[in-house]
Design goal:
Blueprint (H helix, E strand, L loop, with lengths): L1 H8 L1 H9 L5 E6 L5 E7 L2 H7 L11 H5 L4 E6 L3 H15 L2 H5 L7 E6 L8 E3 L18 E7 L2 H14 L7 H6 L5 H4 L13 H15 L3 H17 L3 H18 L1
Antiparallel strand pairs: 1-2, 1-3, 4-5, 4-6
Helix pairs in contact: 1-2, 11-12
């Protein structure tokens, strides 16, 4: 449950959740910079607010993204539900919270999805996240599917994927193309894909490359650079200088991007 995770990470927020009253009113969720990021109303404030941190009770697609950013919660009690509705509307106009403005429709955000249940996964852009990480092919499946984001624009996602694909030789084709291909494509010829479609790489080696992609998408650049430098050293030691040079170029590109 998310509630237990929050209690471990943020003791102050955990205490605040326990003190929220059961009356009718409005709640204001704030980020670490004390900026209001979401405003909502409820007949029972305590029950409503706590539901955000209990994944089994709130499966709305944007909640996971919102919860990660909550550092504090304020509330205002009202005498009636109608009064709460009016106050909520006024506060949204006043603060223009990010998640009220952008998340009226879950399709506003785009994310990068990586299904590690596949033999040769590749990152794809999605506009909706299935509840609990489920997919249409695997209803209720919770493990093995990673989402990165959300991004506020598809342009940011395309730029991110373009950078990933330029650095790592993972597959870039859709499932339909992947299944029908009988010979390596141009990306393989220029060293940008290891051609899993034609069995030119085994699953273990491919997923080792994919782990580097995951580190980059998670923003763990220091850890990724350490891994790449180790690989470069090993390739040089084995006198595989061309491979070492490619890794060196990859390291340089990442360092320039994160400076």
């Amino acid at each position: 449950m998310r509630l237990k995770m929050i209690e471990k990470k943020n003791t102050n927020l955990s205490r605040k959740l326990k003190t929220i009253p059961t009356g009718t009113g409005v709640y204001l969720m704030k980020d670490s910079k004390n900026k209001v990021i979401y405003v909502g109303k409820a007949i029972n404030l305590r029950s409503r607010v706590r539901s955000y941190f209990q994944s089994s009770r709130d499966e709305r697609l944007f909640v996971g993204f919102l919860v990660k950013r909550i550092a504090d919660i304020d509330f205002v009690l009202t005498d009636t539900e109608k009064e709460a509705l009016i106050l909520e509307n006024n506060l949204i106009k006043q603060f223009k919270p990010r998640f009220n403005i952008s998340l009226r429709d879950d399709k506003t955000f785009v994310s990068i999805k990586l299904d590690l249940n596949e033999k040769f996964p590749y990152p794809v852009i999605v506009r909706q996240i299935e509840p609990s990480g489920a997919t249409k092919k695997r209803p209720g499946k919770k493990n093995g599917i990673l989402y990165f984001g959300p991004y506020s624009s598809s342009k940011a996602v395309r730029e991110t994927l373009r950078f990933v694909n330029s650095l790592f030789p993972i597959r870039k084709c859709s499932d339909n193309v992947f299944k029908s291909r009988v010979r390596p494509c141009l990306y393989h010829q220029i060293g940008k894909c290891v051609a899993p479609c034609c069995d030119l790489v085994d699953e273990k080696t491919y997923k080792e490359i994919l782990q580097e992609v995951i580190l980059l998408l998670k923003g763990k650049n220091d850890e990724l650079l350490k891994v790449l430098r180790g690989k470069m050293h090993e390739e040089s030691k084995s006198m595989k200088y061309e491979r070492a040079a490619k890794i060196r170029d990859c390291i340089s590109a990442i360092e320039e991007t994160v400076e």
